[in-house]
Specification:
The complex is a heterodimer of chains A (422) and B (153). Chain A has two domains: 151 residues, Aspartate Aminotransferase, domain 1; 257 residues, 3-Layer(aba) Sandwich (Aspartate Aminotransferase, domain 2), CATH 3.40.640. Helices cover 41% and strands 15% of the residues of chain A. Chain A contains 15 helices and 15 strands. In chain A, the strands form four sheets. Chain A has a seven-stranded mixed beta sheet with strand order 2-8-7-6-5-3-4, with helices on both faces. In chain A, helix 3 runs antiparallel to helix 11 and helix 4 packs parallel to helix 11. With 153 residues, chain B is α+β, with helices and mostly antiparallel strands. Chain B is 40% helix and 19% strand. The longest helix of chain B is centred in the middle third of the chain and has 15 residues. Classes of the chains: A alpha/beta (422), B alpha+beta (153). At the A-B interface, helix 13 of A face helix 1 and helix 2 of B.
């Protein structure tokens, strides 16, 4: 890609401060020379999240929903309160329609098993896109194989957005599931959700499953007005702990689901040869819940609410524009994905003659952490005609110095690889 | 020299840019494919055995500079050697890139040009890149028709 850097814009962008104080993030505060540009893989954690975890274990630790004593009630209240907070953050009035999972991957497997296995039959169609992370690709691919349904893959535009015309062409009355990413983890493209919902509702009875792993951390989400059936997300990408995430569903769709994991908490009554199921959301949360991490996640979303998700989006867009302009000015650099306005805080690129894996090593030596590889999106990489890209991703604690360090290290990588004559 | 300059020294950059023995091998007696699932590196190694001696080795594929240069330098190092000598050299190379060359008493002379990979041991994430072609070569030498791909995972 060739573009001329806009010099006066660069000057203005160079003053971009972080949206959240870096001092709030103990890891970043302890390593001031670190330029963490891999937030799309996992975000750093603010002190309030770590405090919430410690506070749960030091003041409220007991098994929720079980003990008949005050401490167990405190644990139950803390877990239920976390559910209320996270549901509110994602724009869902009915907190009981939020089922906690380990993250997006487990959430997608839940929907594919709990809804998909009960409703997808031989000859039905499942629509996914070439943009998907493996977590929203493989569960559907395998469901199709198990049931004899047909897997349809929506192709992309030249700048790696979902080709809506192709989506429209693939939808039929036999389409049972449309599973699409909200934001591409590999190239950052934002899906025009309203348009997708309109197209699907016009032509098919399919449920719409949105992979919000990269959506919820970076864009305001209002589940109740999105018009989709399920929305999955991961807590660790939005300042929360690892091992907690969830999936929102409409009550009607949840009631169409069969339990997919069995055990404690999810049952109502167990007879010798049959059982009945607990109410939502517990029906889909077998075993001791991850209450501590849910409480940590609630602290994370309160932190994001205080920042305001609209401001988060604006901040990332400003960083993206700045990085986009500076990188586009480097010789031999190719940026994948749509223009900054149509993407979230992810910049995926390759540099001629320098493999992304080598770039990651060289950048690491300059304190710049980026991801190099296929980003768990091999179907997309095949379509890009490459096995790997380098990916820099921004978040609330990123600032202009991170962008400058990235550019500086890329120039250094070019210099090292140019040192050998042909 | 900085760590980076040592890792990306001129011999490695040169073999990355102009890999030796790159391309298909006619009348191969064994082939194998190796993959590094983490970063998508991919290499195919084809060998021609003349009795017990490796008379020709060629490779194709794509990957980072370390994996490509390693495959290239490997082909030049093993051509003309017996299977036992190749295996012994792999052991030495592996000790080198995992930082165990000194304790294993492996001399610079025994490694020849492969010594340029000595600094890989300071980049543990890159050990797999450097050793992928070697694992694949071993599989190609054992290739008796089975095509299970080699993986570094």
């Amino acid at each position: 890609m060739t573009a001329t850097p806009v010099l006066d814009a660069l000057g203005a962008d160079s003053s971009l401060a972080s949206l959240a104080p870096r001092a709030d993030f103990p890891l970043l505060a302890a390593q001031p020379a670190l330029h963490y540009l891999d937030s799309a893989a996992t975000s750093q954690k603010p002190q309030v999240v770590l405090d919430a975890l410690t506070n749960f274990y030091t003041t409220a630790n007991a098994n929720p929903h079980r003990g008949a004593y005050a401490l167990a009630a405190a644990a139950t209240d803390a877990y239920a309160g976390a559910r209320e907070t996270v549901a509110r953050f994602l724009g869902a009035k009915d907190a009981d329609t939020l089922v906690f999972t380990r993250g997006t991957t487990e959430a997608m497997n839940l929907v594919a098993n709990a809804w998909g296995a009960a409703h997808v039959r031989e000859g039905d169609e499942i629509v996914i896109t070439a943009l998907e992370h493996h977590a929203n690709f493989v569960p559907w691919q395998q469901l199709a194989k198990r049931t004899g349904a047909h897997l349809r893959i929506v192709e992309l535009t030249a700048d790696q957005r979902i080709d809506l015309d192709h989506l429209a062409a693939l939808l039929t009355p036999r389409t049972r599931v449309v599973a699409i990413t909200h934001v591409s983890n590999a190239v950052g493209s934002i899906t025009p959700v309203a348009e997708v919902v309109r197209l699907v509702r016009e032509t098919s009875p399919a449920i719409i499953v949105l992979d919000g792993a990269q959506g919820a951390p970076h864009l305001p989400v209002a589940f109740d007005t999105l018009g989709v059936d399920f929305y999955a997300f991961s807590g660790h990408k939005l300042l929360g702990p690892m091992g907690i995430g969830g999936v929102l569903g409409t009550r009607a769709r949840w009631l169409e689901c069969q339990p997919w994991q069995f055990g404690g908490d999810m049952i109502e009554w167990v007879n010798d040869h049959d059982s009945t199921w607990n109410v939502l959301p517990h029906r889909f949360e077998a075993g001791t819940p991850n209450a501590a991490d849910a409480v940590g996640l609630a602290a994370a979303v309160r932190y994001l609410e205080a920042l305001d998700m609209r401001a988060v989006r604006e901040h990332e867009l400003a960083l993206l524009r700045s990085a986009h302009e500076k990188l586009a000015g480097l010789d031999g650099l190719t940026i994948y994905g749509p223009p900054p306005e149509q993407r979230s805080g992810v910049l995926s690129f390759t540099l001629a003659d320098v493999h992304p894996h080598d770039l990651a090593t060289i950048l690491d030596q300059h304190g710049v952490c980026i991801r190099a590889g296929h980003h768990c999106a091999q179907p997309l990489m095949r379509r890009l005609g490459t096995s790997a890209t380098a990916r820099a991703s921004f978040y609330v604690y990123s600032d202009a110095s991170d962008v400058d360090a990235l550019v500086h290290a890329l120039v250094e990588a070019q210099r090292i690889f140019a040192s050998v004559a042909d | 020299m900085s760590d980076l300059q040592e890792l990306y020294q001129s011999v490695i950059l040169d073999h990355n840019r102009k890999p030796r023995n790159f391309g298909p091998l006619d009348e191969a007696s064994g082939t194998a494919e190796g993959k590094n699932p983490l970063c998508g590196d991919q290499v195919e190694v084809a060998v021609k055995l003349d009795g017990d001696v490796l008379s020709a080795v060629k490779f194709t594929g794509s990957g980072c500079a370390i994996s490509k240069a390693s495959a290239s330098l490997m082909t030049t190092a093993v051509t003309g050697k017996s299977r036992a000598e190749v295996e012994a050299l792999f052991d030495k190379f592996h000790a080198l890139v995992t930082g165990r060359a000194a304790e294993a008493d492996i001399t610079k002379e025994a490694l020849g040009q492969l010594i340029v990979f000595s600094s890989v041991s300071r980049f543990p994430i890159r050990v797999k890149c450097a050793s992928l072609a070697w694992h694949t070569l071993r599989a190609a030498l054992e290739d008796g028709g089975a095509d299970a791909p080699v993986s570094t995972e």
